[in-house]
Amino acid sequence: MTHARHVVVIGGGVSGLTTALTVLADSPEPVSVTVLDAQPSVGGLIRTSPFAGLPAVDEGADAFLTRVPWATQLASELGLGAALTSPTGAHAYVWHNGMHTIPGDLLLGVPAKVRSFASTRLLSPKGKARAAIEPLLPRTTPKDSIGHYVRRRFGNEVHERLVDPLVGSIYAADTDNFSLAAVPQIAALTSERSMLIAAGKARKNASANANSSLPIFGSPLKGMGALIETLAERVVAVGGTIRTSETVESIERHGSHYNVHTTNHTLQCDAIAVASPAKKSAAFIHTVDSHAASLLKQWDHASVVLVSLAVPATQWPSHLTGSGYLVPKPDQRWVTAASFGSNKWAHWRPTDGSMIVRVSLGRDGLDVMHFDNEKLLNLALADMKLHINADLTPTEVRTSRWAESFPQYRPHHFERLEEIEKSLRAKAPGIVFAGASYRGIGIPACVQQARAAGESLISHLASLTQ
Ligand SMILES: Cc1cc2nc3c(=O)[nH]c(=O)nc-3n(C[C@H](O)[C@H](O)[C@H](O)COP(=O)(O)OP(=O)(O)OC[C@H]3O[C@@H](n4cnc5c(N)ncnc54)[C@H](O)[C@@H]3O)c2cc1C
Fold this sequence. Notes:
Layout: E1 5-10, H1 14-26, E2 31-36, E3 48-51, E4 54-58, E5 64-65, H2 70-77, E6 84-85, E7 92-95, E8 99-101, E9 106-107, E10 110-111, H3 115-118, H4 125-132, H5 146-154, H6 156-171, H7 184-187, H8 195-208, E11 217-220, H9 224-237, E12 241-243, E13 248-254, E14 257-262, E15 266-269, E16 271-274, H10 278-285, H11 290-297, E17 301-311, E18 324-326, E19 335-340, H12 341-344, E20 355-361, H13 373-388, E21 396-407, H14 413-427, E22 431-433, H15 443-465
Parallel strand pairs: 1-2, 1-16, 2-12, 7-18, 16-22
Antiparallel strand pairs: 3-4, 5-11, 6-11, 7-8, 9-10, 13-14, 14-15, 17-20, 17-21, 18-19, 19-20
Helix pairs in contact: 1-9, 1-15, 2-15, 5-6, 10-11, 11-14
The site of flavin-adenine dinucleotide (FAD) has 36 residues, from helix 1, helix 10, strand 17, strand 21 and helix 15.
């Protein structure tokens, strides 16, 4: 007689919960799954709460990419398909001594046509002339740094005012110190001699795709928190157990079993998914693989603060109809971006006509976590005064601190990850990773990794019975 196998999932963010669901739903053999999370509630970096009289305004992620299938598929599987909405289509700006609409024909900031930058005043005539010669330049040998490659191809202005702000806004990154391979849309453009020509082809292929008329982003109408809530409910409904306020402190291997020690308990299991951030995971991986742990410990994670404001309609400059703006690094003081939520989302419009603005402060190399909330608000308002030339006196303020929330994919990220996984396979088979620190930070990439991790755990369990 074989006993039901037990899988422990460390981390109850979207990655951990999806891994748990995958194992429970797809395992051909009986299996029990326990999700452990250090926090009093699941969701990790995803949180939605009431704000400005609205029932659900996201405190972190507010949309997922729908051009790749994983998050949309998960939402449909959870019955949220019909409850998805998409942004209004309002355009975004880059602030550089004034607001500039982000030009069209870009691929994550990389120009796909000369006309992408020919008429914008975001670039100087010299910057445009430098960018225009890109197709004539000899091939650049890629180093694993976005900044290194893009600066060489298009010059500093395209990098600093387009590519770095757009990529940096997704990863809170300094793209001069960020892996090119970790941003596949940009890495794919290095296969040809000219990045501009490659970007042109990539955009053409994308628009030839039948789905190109569909929105690029989606979100549940009740906010991203609804995804987590429904996911956690489903995990429990299919037999999973979720235990919160349980910090994993160490793992011990005993032959083909593991003991997982938390602050409160010890759980025995046959396989483990590590769906917690790299640096935090180093502590408990250390007891099974000190080499893997020493590499995980080196991971940098950037912190950001998101200050949400409800601004009276009368104070809002009427010409600012866009979805928000990004601030290039050389122009940054503290604010790196601001999202004009009520322009971006039709369901984020308070009945009194206020504008909901979500202001981002901090990134890799720009720490803001030491400021108290009052100081953060003052910094946000002072920067916005400079950017939009308006004195804002918000009627409601919410400060969401996201400490060490953005893992930084330093150059040669994937080589390091491979070394960790190889070492773990040898010393601790049946332990797999899924989550933002590892193979993609966006929600779809987290779901994709979680699916793969779940399948790999199922294969491991099958190998134990053979
Ligand atoms: C401000 C902000 C805005 C974002 N915007 C977007 C967006 O618009 N679109 C998008 O796609 N993505 C966005 N992201 C990124 C995305 O939200 C995250 O990458 C994703 O939610 C990470 O999920 P995860 O499950 O991998 O990790 P996490 O959500 O970090 O979950 C990990 C969990 O592990 C737990 N944990 C840690 N250590 C231990 C331990 N020792 N024992 C037990 N549990 C432990 C933590 O408590 C946590 O709950 C944003 C992120 C932030 C911070």
